Amino acid sequence: MADARPNVLLIHSHDLGRYLGCYGVDTETPSIDALAADGAVFDRHFAAAPQCSPSRGSLMTGRAPHVNGLMGLAHGDWELDADERILPHYLRDAGYETHLFGLQHITQDTDRLEYDHVHSEGNLYPGVSPTVHQANRARNVASVVASFLDADAYTDPFFASIGFFECHRVEEENGRFGFDAGYYDADDPDDVRPLPYLPDRRGIRHDLGEMRGMIVAIDEAIETILEALDAADIEDETLVIFTTEHGIAFPRAKGTCYDAGIEAALVLRYPGVIEGGERYAELLSNIDVLPTILDFVGIDVPDRISGRSFAGLVADEYGGYDERDRVFAEMTWHDMYNPIRAVRTNRYKYVRRFWPLPTVYLPADVFSSESGREVRETDTVPSRQYEELYDLRDAPQEDDNVVNEPRYQDVRVDLSEQLHEWMVETDDPILDGPVVPGDYDKIQSWPHRST
């Protein structure tokens, strides 16, 4: 075990999933790849939700969205429950100095997060305008972090949450949502490898080419931060975590509980403790990250945290590792009511839907994109099935629903029971009926309701 408590850098980005070179994608991410080569990469790490605030809330609390209360977007008046504790609270109580750089998007009240130092503004909604959150663009956030490290403006040990705006879509002048190609350099659509779960169409390639400009910005920002760590001579005493909140902002990804929607990158580097160059195929949920950090810094994991530490998986001195045989994911509110619960095992994915909506839900930014235009005629037909079961060995893209096939009925019953038991054990409010939005009282007071 490390002799002293490490500094902790938690770097996170929007809507990126695992669209990175170190995960086999044909995009150049040399700095992230180098971080992965020096650390541990987790190939089956999944978010607790396929959307921004609920996923980030789970990362920061170690608890599912319907448990911590953040079942919708923070700028939509959803909030963590009043008694929720987040990662900087635990670390502050243990003597850590806590810092927030860039985006956080789990509350509209930054003071509630109780960071010792907030280094940039604009930490709320990621924005639909390209000019809304300049402070949260990766290169700007990285510059502030580098200046902070260069100035030795911290007390050991310290924790820093570092959030990037990219790769969130922005609204363009034509009303469509793209990746701000006027600010970032885009790749030629002809040079882009198609996504395996979507048809190979020009609009999808166009969006992928644009998104790569944002990915370059993320990668360069991470290079800036890692170089600053090295220059400050604290690289060997710092746990660096790079992760993403959920899948990319494309159809059948963001806003869905398919793997493309809940997949999340996860890379950990801790020199002398975590062996570099290792890859792990164990199932992980992003609720597991918080208890893992607590283990690394020597804090007992509270019983209220439902995530499981995987520190023992990557470093023997942290004890055993209780391997998962399943992970859960959920969605309740985004830009509309879309209640979904899902369970994923090594081989199967079971998805249960609770509301009539189109076959595949497209969040507003995806619906109004070039990619969304390519699939609207098929994906937005209102013929949703309320149960889906996928044999991931035979249908890794989740394009063959076998929920009604006789040979899968034992699996269907087993997974549906597991999902229901989890919902009961965690007191999922959806069991009592539809969940009202966070701004329900405001809606009730609208003048039109009295006419």
TrEMBL record:
Keywords: Hydrolase, Plasmid. The keyword Hydrolase applies. The keyword Ligase does not apply. GO terms for molecular function: arylsulfatase activity; N-sulfoglucosamine sulfohydrolase activity. Gene3D superfamilies: Alkaline Phosphatase, subunit A (3.40.720.10). Its EC number is 3.10.1.1. It is an enzyme of class 3 (hydrolase). Pfam families: Sulfatase. It comes from the Archaea. Residues 6-299 form the Sulfatase N-terminal domain. PANTHER family: ARYLSULFATASE FAMILY MEMBER (PTHR42693), ENDO-4-O-SULFATASE (PTHR42693:SF53). Belongs to the sulfatase family. This is N-sulfoglucosamine sulfohydrolase.
